[in-house]
């Protein structure tokens, strides 16, 4: 009797957990549903007091009009955001990955001092370094250029810290076997460590890509002409003091998140693997 009662309780608990997960998933999907629905609605339908579960008329012209608008270079902005995000992601993975591996594995006198110095920069608010960074970029003549948008973000202290902690938990036996075969630190990093850290690298790369893609303040200050606009700056132009183009804004927001969704769906397995390995293997 006790066994039957225990099985019944476990079954009820399982159903309760699945029900809670379903409710949470539906709540999470509500903003995406509203975004897709509103992106294909007309302005008069969006302003109507009656709620529509689906657009009364699927206004596909919102999509074509988005790219045909001469005042907002949406295609150019998407291209700039993609170029900036990809370049910064690759740069962070290479620079911060090498720095993290060096701090974790290469013994030298000032390694701890360098590590604590990098970690201390995480305590400095971004607003404190914003003006000096802008002055430096302006002095170099990088205003309204992709160099000014990309290069300042090629190194991240947080990514270096995470790489260092992850590499501390990397099995030393594998590296020692590589050293016996004649590989140095450089060869071991690229041929042994990186191929066996794909999940963690994908997780850091995804976080970096999303942060770079969603950046707003720095591109707003540096990208002063339309040729250097990013997608976030283009989105902000739909909200002006004179008018608000609601349907175009929803469509632009939908277009802006599509690359992030595709990237997450493609790298989902590696991201989960990287998070699990970082949580188990990191010190």
UniProtKB/TrEMBL annotation:
Membrane topology: Multi-pass membrane protein
Predominant localisation class: membrane
GO biological process, one term: transmembrane transport
Coiled coil: none
UniProt keyword terms in alphabetical order: Cell membrane, Membrane, Transmembrane, Transmembrane helix, Transport
PROSITE patterns named among the record's database cross-references: ABC_TM1
Compartments in which it is found: Cell membrane
Annotated family: Belongs to the binding-protein-dependent transport system permease family.
The protein's name in its UniProt record: Sugar ABC transporter permease
């Amino acid at each position: 009797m006790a066994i039957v009662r225990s099985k019944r309780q476990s079954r009820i608990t399982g159903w309760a957990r699945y029900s809670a997960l379903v409710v949470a998933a539906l709540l999470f999907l509500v903003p995406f549903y509203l975004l897709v629905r509103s992106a294909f609605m007309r302005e008069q339908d969006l302003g109507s007091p009656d709620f529509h579960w689906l657009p009364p008329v699927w206004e596909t012209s919102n999509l074509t009009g988005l790219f045909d608008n001469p005042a907002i270079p949406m295609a150019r902005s998407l291209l700039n955001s993609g170029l900036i995000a990809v370049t910064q992601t690759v740069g962070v993975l290479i620079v911060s990955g090498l720095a993290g591996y060096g701090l974790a594995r290469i013994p030298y006198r000032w390694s701890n001092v360098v590590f604590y110095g990098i970690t201390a920069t995480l305590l400095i608010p971004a607003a404190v370094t914003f003006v000096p960074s802008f002055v430096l970029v302006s002095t170099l003549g990088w205003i309204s250029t992709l160099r000014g948008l990309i290069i300042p973000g090629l190194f991240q202290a947080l990514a270096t810290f995470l790489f260092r902690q992850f590499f501390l938990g990397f099995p030393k036996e594998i590296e020692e076997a590589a050293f016996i075969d004649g590989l140095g630190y450089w060869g071991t990093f690229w041929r042994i460590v990186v191929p066996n850290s794909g999940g963690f690298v994908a997780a850091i790369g995804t976080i970096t890509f999303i942060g770079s893609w969603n950046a707003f303040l720095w591109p707003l200050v540096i990208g002063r002409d339309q040729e250097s606009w990013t997608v976030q700056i283009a989105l902000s132009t739909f909200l002006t003091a004179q008018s608000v183009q609601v349907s175009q804004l929803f469509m632009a927001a939908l277009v802006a998140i599509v690359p992030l969704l595709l990237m997450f769906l493609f790298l989902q397995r590696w991201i989960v693997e990287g998070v699990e390995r970082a949580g188990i293997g990191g010190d």
